[in-house]
Amino acid sequence: MKRLMLILFVFTCQVMAVQVDTHVAAALVDQQQTSEAQRQLSALTAVVSKKSGLTVSQLLSEQLVDEDFRPAILRSYFEDIPRHLDANELWYNVVVDEDRLNRLMIDKEIPVWPAQRGDAFVWVVEELEDGNLINAPADSAASYWLRQWFRHKGLPARFYDYQAEDLLAFQPRDVRFLNPDLIDFIQQNHQPDLTLLVFVKHSRNGLSYRVGLQRGDEPIQIKNLKFVNMSSGMSSLADLAQSMMASGQQVFAEEFSENTVSLLINNLANAEQLIDLKKYFDQHALIDRYQIQSFSNGRLSIMANIKVLPETFIKFVDAGQMLQHMPLDIGQSILFSVAE
User: Fold this and answer.
1) Dist CA 194 CA 203 (whole Å)
2) What per-residue confidence (pLDDT) applies to 198?
3) Beta strand 206-214 with 194-203: parallel, antiparallel or unpaired?
4) Are strands 116-117 and 90-96 parallel, antiparallel or unpaired?
């Protein structure tokens, strides 16, 4: 077990991640046409997808989830779909032993996407068959399926509520035409990990969507898809969002390694910062446990056991935007400073 000194400085503009429950997920199943064993394997694949950031189709094509995963199931249950959506399927949920599943994933070299994740800001509009362009109601099929797929794929999201919020002069047409000014406004004022504008078109020939996805400063990605079933269409869209949000955030098998690090956090100006830092370390997915050693003159000393290589830990601390690594050669210390 390695011991390493990390010197950290507080980033005053803190961004806290959302904690995702990665020990439960569901598959969409037809109860009459599937066996219990088939349902279990489908739901286990959904859980592994949620925990890894790999899409279900990736896991299935590479046959990464097999019978070895079945003993990780603690319990299962069905969940109804709203009747007005006229669906024949049910959600089949499984709750798993998370530690056991983690070990299986590492053994099979499946990456782990830590449960602390950035969120997406999502605005959905629909063009009805009569040409009317509207904000998608919360109970519409498009809203329901996209929300559910985001939940089961482990994607935290804020869906724009046009009845409770007002994005100034922006209208559904700005979503339809992927107005860059709207994207900039959302990025600057809501600071999501991913901005997702969704235009769903209903026609006599079926359904289609045109979407714009932007993550941070990366160029916007524009995708179009025609589909017949709203559930499958929104699942494909959620897969796109999952792949983008998980990119660069996964921990691979070779990066897992128990290490002990000494953390020094400088420039604590007030009690609120101390409380926020404690919450940060309490919830950090890569910290197994930690103990506060001392606190004086704005400096906090912590001894922490981390689950990964120090280099991986530094990468995730940087990504959290609370602390920033300064790559200076100072012997056994790794320096962090205030992010600008």
Assistant:
1) 29
2) 98
3) antiparallel
4) unpaired
